[in-house]
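From the pipeline queue, job 12 of 40. The input is one protein chain; the requested action is below.

Action: predict structure.
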Amino acid sequence: MAEVTWRAALAPLRSRNFTWYYASRFVNTLGSMMANIALTFAVLDITGSASALGAVLAAHTVPMVLLLLYGGVISDRLPRTLVLQASNVASAVTQGLIALLVVTGTAELWLLVALSVVHGAVSAISFPAMASVMAQLVPRDQLQPANALMSLSRNSLTVLGPTIGALFVVTVGSGWALAIDAATWAAAAVLLLPVRIPPREPSGQPSDTLRELREGWDFFRSTTWLWVVVVSFGLLNALLAGAWETLGPVVAQDTIGRQDWGFVLSAQAAGLLAMSVVMLRVPLRRPLFVGMSAIVLLGLPMLALGLHPHTPTLVVTSFLAGAGIEVFSMGWNLAMMENVEESMLSRAYSYDALGSFVAMPVGQLAAGPVGAAFGFSEVLVASGVLFVVIVLVTLLSRSVRDLPRRVEPAPEATAH
């Protein structure tokens, strides 16, 4: 495949469906980026407790993980834009209620936990639809630039969103910042109204959640490249959540300092943003081979922090890690959207998310005790080495290495 021209790279924006969806996701993502920091400080203002903050965050995460598979069934059964609109409205209501409680000074921890549970459940329903709807918005030969454009806006907002959110928290307060987030969810639902996707052909079978879950599981376990990568990322995400996200800040605080740790995290966001621009022009021929080869870069910052904490080295390795994340993300989305038939895509994404995320709490809970027993730096180094080994073992799978691009729609889901 030759290098993509800028005209071809921007072609998805000439599609009415994609443009309205792009606008919806942009507004939605901006609000979510602001809400993360607003909710954090709202809980701390109310309780002053890190444990309370953890409870609110977990209240969102747990139902999301538990209901992901059901979300996949719903998103393969109903029009995905309808699922996203309903989820956006529900999120606007839950975030609006949290904002009202905070602004009026009536918020209590149990109320915040309860509303976070509802918001997490809504997120579980919307995630598979959000991940899979792109395949219905643009032709297959535009999937890479369409995904790259989405990444470009998302990664830009990853850099700017928290800063804007912090500004609102400082100037108007956490409650009003959350109210703005609620308004963005409502606006995102409205912006989806012009999106028109042809209805699916009826399956001829009555709806049966258990049957549809079994169909999704049968496809997942029979598709080698899919389950191999998901199992690998179950392990990789546990290492990242435990070593880098849990032990990393502790080691950084005692070595390079908190401010420099912020520079390191910003460098990763910059790597994501820079690579999303590159992915607009450079086509991937073997999406999983290139993606898995790139994600090995994510082990470098763990090794650098464990072996010799040095800010310039960590900034460079984190930038490379961010670039690697973006290449893998592009490769994975292309592999899924081009090799899984549209009627199965949401369920495939839901099994992917469940398998990839389920071990993260294990890593987070185990990191402290293991670090105390063997040393934080030693655990970081071991995790970095193990990370690289897992990636290399994954690449031993021929189905992962050799999975091709499929620009033309396949008549059936591809199983290996």
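Job complete. The radius of gyration is 21 Å.
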